[in-house]
Automatic annotation (TrEMBL):
GO terms for biological process: trehalose biosynthetic process. Removes the phosphate from trehalose 6-phosphate to produce free trehalose. This is Trehalose 6-phosphate phosphatase. The lineage of its organism: Bacteria, Pseudomonadati, Pseudomonadota, Gammaproteobacteria, Enterobacterales. Pathway: Glycan biosynthesis; trehalose biosynthesis. Its EC number is 3.1.3.12. InterPro entries: HAD-like_sf, HAD-SF_hydro_IIB, HAD_sf, OTSB-like, Trehalose_PPase. Keywords: Hydrolase, Magnesium, Metal-binding.
């Protein structure tokens, strides 16, 4: 456990790394509405060059669906785990999804639509196989949102409740970012590398735990107690670290080629 600020374990030139990034709060500043979020062009360029240096071993691991991640990362096309790993795209572009039964999705959607409509300022994001209940614009309804989610989990045992920053998500059992990262690490170009994962939210803790178990490097963005080994203070610090890491990796690759 760590609570320190701006400390990241050093990367070693002789080690081959695989990089995993959360998006909201890590590669992109959090905004009042999810559709207002963007990733700066320079950050996308750093990700592109890092992926080239690491033979494609760079992936996004997010609560957002893959189609939203593609829009944010465009023109990059990266391996991705969307909806906390309920949908995944590997380095060859193959997509796999964990789906809920259509009848379950319909029943939950109807109930959530009615409940959210009664809580002004809250919003429902229906991801097909998961549901995000946002209350950033109406924090006074946090308890009501949490109770609503808990009541649905009690009646639909195939779901699990996942708290986040001003959001509570309902997602399929067994789906989390740690499982997604471990799955990526079994296949090229990630296999045989040391994982590095950056994230900022409670949803990223499963990823930190998985990466720690794989003897990788886990980095928490922002304040709060975490299972991560390292810490960066905010999104701007992530951008600096990414730029420095990309430059160092480029130098390490160039040195290896000359040798």
């Amino acid at each position: 456990m760590t609570t320190q600020t701006d400390f990241v374990p050093p990367l070693h030139a002789e080690t081959r790394y695989a990089f995993f990034f959360d998006v909201d709060g890590t590669l992109a500043a959090i905004k009042p509405r999810p559709d207002e979020v963007s990733i700066p062009v320079q950050v996308l360029d750093d990700l592109k060059r890092l992926a080239q240096q690491c033979e494609g071993a760079v992936a996004l691991v997010s609560g957002r669906p893959i189609d939203q991640l593609d829009a944010l990362a465009s023109p990059l096309v990266l391996p991705m785990a969307g909806v906390h790993g309920a949908e995944r795209r590997n380095s060859e572009g193959q997509i796999t999804r964990i789906a809920l039964a259509p009848a379950t999705v319909t029943a939950i959607s109807r109930e959530l639509d009615a409940a959210i409509a009664a809580l002004p300022g809250t919003s429902l994001e229906n991801k097909g196989m998961a549901f995000a209940l946002h209350y950033r614009q109406a924090p006074q309804y946090q308890q009501a949102i949490e109770q609503l989610a808990a009541s649905l989990v009690a009646r639909f045992p195939e779901l699990v409740q996942q708290p986040g920053k001003c959001v509570v998500e309902l997602k399929p059992q067994g789906v989390n970012k740690g499982a997604a990262i471990k799955d990526f690490m079994q296949y090229p170009p990630f296999a045989g590398r040391v994982p590095v994962f950056l994230g900022d939210d409670l949803t990223d803790e499963a990823g930190f735990i998985a990466v720690n178990a794989l003897d990788g490097i886990s980095i928490k963005v922002g304040a709060g107690t975490s299972n991560a080994q390292g810490r960066l203070s905010d999104v701007t610090a992530v951008y600096r670290w990414l730029a420095q890491t990309r430059i160092k990796t480029d130098e390490d690759v160039s040195t290896s080629v000359r040798s």
